[in-house]
Design goal:
By secondary structure, the chain is an alpha+beta fold. It folds into three domains: about 110 residues, 3-Layer(aba) Sandwich (D-Maltodextrin-Binding Protein, domain 2), CATH 3.40.190; about 90 residues, Dipeptide-binding Protein, domain 1; about 180 residues, Roll (Dipeptide-binding Protein, domain 3). The protein is built from 13 helices and 21 strands. A hairpin with a 4-residue loop joins strand 4 and strand 5.
């Protein structure tokens, strides 16, 4: 009997110790390194830590309340009203009001907005449009529509980034953005006391810092995902959520849809997938991934150089400039595409990354959300097409996507996963619906 009691006590002690190790701890500083800018739209890590949206996406991609508690539409989705959550404050203590939200949305979207007008009506934010907006709640969860303070309670323009999010900005020194936990966050205080984001850090240096314990979370580009797994990094990988696409201008000689079609036919997607991205993600000729629609396979991904020559015919073609919105692998992809197009007798030169006046631009567009119609509209807006997507069935969704692709202004190439690696101190790190790390819900094992 005594032996049985001793064993029971030992098992209980082990179980309690195990629970203590896995239970989230409050405290500590989470250290993150990135290659780019933490404030850039679409995937800037700091934006989601400092700001909130009217709506948000849960882990499954479904739309959930955030700064707006409820919303409803009328007039066939030409008008939406969002009722604000009461008692929310910006980091400086300014109360969240419908007037402030309307000002933030107006400042963040000056052209090609999903809405025509936005105004404050008591506790409501009302958005109206000449066109229907069936996907507006999902669109408002996007990074570009996060709510920032535009005027303090005294009517002054704030200095710095001030939001309602789980962390607030406390400094930027020597390439490190310092964020401190918002003790009064409306969703509850985050676990970490602070987050430090070291910016413009090359990926190889990020990995070295992770291996030596100088950082906790680093980036894993899709083209290096296989290597990260081979090096036994603790990797979190999203489904294919990043669309790699070639955006083609419809100006000059490229106003001819046949020339744009020739460019689409000349690109060798398989070479990009096999060589540069080491078979990560998937080859695609559709804007939305297969797991979201089920019909992506209906769009042919095969290269057809004969068709490219046929479409081009004797049409004048070029010279054309090709740019990218990134460096590294994006430059390699641009070089490979330029080679493909030269084989189709196009005169193409690869320019500097970020060129605003290129004829062809290689872009990455994040795909988020579980609603295919909203995701399609998000992708189209990300590539310059602001037309609403109204799709009440898979057939009408397919027709809308086919119509957009027939213009050949956007040529889908690949869908890629997003990935991050974490160190041994990090607990409960997960990826959000857009593939970015949910740093606000992560905790540190050695926090006290």
């Amino acid at each position: 009997m005594l032996r049985r009691f001793a064993i029971s006590c030992l098992l209980a002690t082990v179980a309690m110790a195990s629970m203590a190790r896995t239970r989230p701890h409050y405290g500590g500083t989470l250290r993150v390194e990135i290659e780019g800018d933490p404030w850039v739209r679409q995937d800037g890590l700091a934006r989601r830590l400092v700001y909130d949206g009217l709506t948000q996406l849960d882990a499954t991609g479904a739309v959930r309340p955030a700064l707006a508690l409820t919303w409803e539409s009328d007039n066939n989705s030409h008008r939406w009203q969002f009722r604000l959550r009461p008692g929310v404050h910006f980091h400086d203590g300014t109360s969240l009001t419908s007037t402030g939200v309307a000002a933030s949305l107006t400042a963040s979207c000056t052209a090609d907005c999903p809405w025509t007008a936005v105004r404050a009506v008591g506790p409501l934010v009302v958005l109206t449009s000449d066109s229907p907006m069936p996907n507006l709640p999902a669109l408002l969860a996007g990074d570009q529509f996060l709510i920032a303070l535009t005027a303090t309670a005294e009517g002054k323009t704030p200095t710095g980034a001030i939001g309602t999010g789980p962390f607030q900005v406390t400094g930027f020194n020597n390439g490190v953005l310092m964020l401190t936990a918002n003790e009064n966050y409306w969703q509850g205080r985050p676990f970490a006391d602070a987050i430090e984001i070291r910016v413009h850090r090359p990926v190889r240096e990020q990995w070295l810092d992770l291996s030596t314990g100088r950082t906790d979370v680093v980036e894993i580009p899709a083209e290096l995902l296989r290597q990260a797994q081979q090096e036994r990094l603790t990797v979190l990988t999203s489904p294919p959520l990043t669309l790699l696409a070639l955006q083609v201008t419809d100006a000059g000689s490229l106003a001819n849809v046949k020339l744009r079609g020739a460019i689409a036919a000349a690109v060798d997607r398989s070479a990009l997938y096999n060589v540069i991205f080491q078979k990560q993600g998937a080859v695609t000729a559709s804007l939305l991934p297969q797991q979201l629609t089920g019909y992506s396979f209906l769009f042919s991904t095969d290269r057809d150089l004969n068709k490219a020559h046929e479409l081009r015919g004797g049409l004048t073609a070029g010279p054309f400039s090709l740019s990218t919105d990134g460096a590294g692998a994006m430059q390699l992809v641009a070089q490979r595409i330029a080679l493909n197009l030269r084989e189709a007798e196009f005169n193409v030169q690869v320019g500097n990354a970020g060129s605003q006046h290129a004829d062809l631009v290689l872009r990455k567009v994040q795909i988020t959300g579980a609603d295919p119609a909203a995701a399609l509209e998000q992708v189209l807006r990300g590539t310059g097409d602001d037309a609403p997507v109204i799709a009440e069935s898979p057939a009408t969704l397919y027709k809308a996507e086919r119509t957009a692709l027939d213009e050949k202004k956007v040529i889908p190439l690949l869908v890629l996963p997003r990935a991050y690696a974490s160190g041994p101190r990090v607990r409960d790190l997960r990826l959000r619906a857009d593939g970015a790390p949910d740093l606000a819900d992560a905790s540190l094992e050695d926090a006290r």
